[in-house]
Amino acid sequence: MPASTVLHLVLFTLLSCVTPVQSKGFLMERRGGAYKSATDLKQELRDAMGEAMGCGGHFTEEEVTAIKRDLQPIWRTLPKNGGVDRIERRSLRYLIYRYFNKKSSIMVRGFEPNRLANTSLWDKDDILSQTVPAFVEAALESKHAEVHGFDFSDAVQMVVTMEQLIFDAEGAILEAVYQNQRKPTTGSLSSAGMGQVLEEFMIHWMLNDDKEGIKMLVRNGTLLRETIPHWDQIVGFVHGQVSAMSFQRQQTPASIRTNVGHNALSVRFSYEDAHQAVGNIRTSFASFWESECAAMKAQLVEMDPLNTGRVPLSKFYGTGLDAEWRFGESEAYLRDLGALDETSTWRGKQVIIPNYIQGASNCIVSAEHYSVCCTNECESMIAEIESTIAAPVARVSEILPLVGNMTSQTTVDHDDPPKLEGALTVQLEQIAASNSGMVPLHGRLFAQWLHYAFPHECMFPVKAGTAVSLSPDRYGDGYIATQREMKLHAATSNMDAANASEMGREDLQWMSQWSPEEELMADYAELQASSLSKSKVMLGLVAVLVMFAFLGAVGFSHRASFAGSPAYVNQPDVKTTHFV
Fold first, then answer.
1. Angle between helix 89-104 and helix 61-76 axes, rounded to 10 deg
2. What is the percent of the chain with per-residue pLDDT over 90, rounded to a whole number?
3. How far apart, in Å, do the first and last CA atoms of the chain sit?
4. Which of 49, 45, 50, 92 is nearest to 71 (CA)?
5. Any idea what the Cα angle at residue 104 is, between residues 386 and 26, rounded to 5°?
6. Does the global pTM surpass 0.85?
7. Which residues contact 23 (CB under 8 A, 6 or more apart)?
8. Quick check: 194 and 277 in contact, CB under 8 A?
9. What contacts 5, CB < 8 A, 6 or more positions away?
């Protein structure tokens, strides 16, 4: 809980002491109220799509090319519609999620991987999640209404539109900062003035533009430092962006310099420069904040000596009681985040380490359209698999040596390869056996297998629709555990710690949460049908040869009639899959 949870919890505590009447409104009453209506949001999306398609957008040809390059490895491994290079709706959303998560650890609202793509049951306050993907998808589908699915250019268009929407939203915040500081957007700023603008922008950004709270923190520097963790380091990060822009300007040849901003030798900055700096902050902030995430992970891993990827809830809360603010989410919130394993009879309820770290409670920024979260350490492993396999499915013989040569980097000194022998190999073989000998790379079962191979890095894939991605302020009052609840859990344990230390992972039911239920984001039947077609061709050729041999034998013996009727080849049953 060292990110947005800390910010909200500390701010709530401080404001309760300073302004008890206003504190509840600052933190809780804004739930849903800050979000635009569906009509307003659709207008923003129309504007963003128009800009993304060349009507004033800020993307250069080089930037679009870079987007295509980043999307291609993932695109190659997504299942395509039979006979055409198009993907289903859920595959498109997954592709967008992966792009932003990989690029800058951003979770775009509405593209969360645990969300059902076709559900009509949305939270009444979740207008953004409901509108963004569906509206843009509908606009893309209208381009080729008679053809099912989305092609690669549609995927690029979706990314550019989301980037433009985020860019425009950040511009609106930046304009509010300029107005609040009485700075004209047509003027220019010194380095100090630029730093002032970006510092206040960070307050708006990190508090999700809550006007009451922002006013209090802008006026009270002491309260600001007590509320936002490591504020002085954040200020240093912001001013580092200004210095980097100055250096880059000096290094840019005049022949390729654009007309945006000011000349290379100028120490003044335009509004466009500030907007560019804001974009740079968004894409690099997760890397800057990663030390906090790493420290949190190190604490959790220390409580998991058997490398199960789980920490008993009693230990989790025991540490939370001893620390100032870490590890205090309520049991209900952990469950709703998909970070609670309740399947072990030996260890009782356990917090799943990567699910907790990647959970919404640890996203330091929860903006209108997205959240900035801890770096997903499993992303590099998935990317390596995608790059090597370059297909939607793979054989066990391809996956085992590839994954076996990877390292987890749980700590600086720990880079051991995963132990795939035994249960994990058997499980992977069973996944392949249920899919005609192939493993779907983007199915739930393979993601589950990766979690047990890398229990501290790869998230356990909860079933679609069973978890939420709500920040603490959007979740409500019940996100934090009471002292009584924490003490109650910390005082209870389902097994003696001394006995636990003498038992191995198998004895502790370390894979008790394994579920055999597959979830596929698209129909892999075409891929299986292709394999079946090859088999049928071979069987057909054999049947023809047998028939000619039979006819030859008949002719040789001068028989006038056939002794039997033609044989028919039985087709194997195609496995029924569960789509989400």
1. 120
2. 45
3. 30
4. 92
5. 135
6. no
7. 12, 15, 16
8. yes
9. 325, 328, 329, 361, 362, 472, 479, 480
